[in-house]
Amino acid sequence: MDEFQKLKGLEALACVLGYQLSPRSADSALTSEVLASATDTVDSLEGLELIYYYWKSLYLDVIGDPKSAFAVFDERSGALKVFAKTEQLVNVEVFPCVDFKWRALEGALKGGATFHTCDGQPTCVSSGFPAHGADFATASMRAWLKESINTR
Q1: Domains of the chain, with CATH numbers?
Q2: pTM of the model
Q3: Measured distance CA(140)–CA(130) in Å, rounded
Q4: pLDDT above 90 covers what percent of the chain?
Q5: Deepest of 37, 48, 95, 108, by most Cβ within 10 A of its Cβ?
Q6: DSSP state of 86
Q7: Is the N-terminal amide bond of 96 cis, ω within 30° of 0?
Q8: How many CA atoms lie within 13 A of 60 on its CB side?
Q9: What does each C-alpha distance from 43 to 53, 67, 72 come to in angstroms?
């Protein structure tokens, strides 16, 4: 590995671990102090935190908390990988998500949405944004998304 590649890798590691680098060039951004601190941090990582930062270092999108539960989408396998301290921290809903559909409907009703059928197709109107779906839950989620997009 040439010095430039090594420097870029170390710079990426420092950024992943949250170290602020100066806006100078890559050659001067990595002071010995930053590198020593990043190395000490790496040496102290264990368990979930180590796995979390390993995935982040591969430039993958990681979502969650490195100390309790997080997930990463593995494009090679097409699977979502979930890492957690305990099973109680993970709730997997496999499509179609019946519970989620009920929650979407309940939320729409509480928010004042109206429901009807239009040419036999379920329709939801939320804050003036109409949406259709194969069922009322799908229509309510679409209406909510339209409302959300248009009110930001």
Answers
A1: 3-89 (no CATH), 98-150 (3.30.160)
A2: 0.54
A3: 9
A4: 28
A5: 108
A6: S
A7: yes
A8: 19
A9: 12, 16, 23
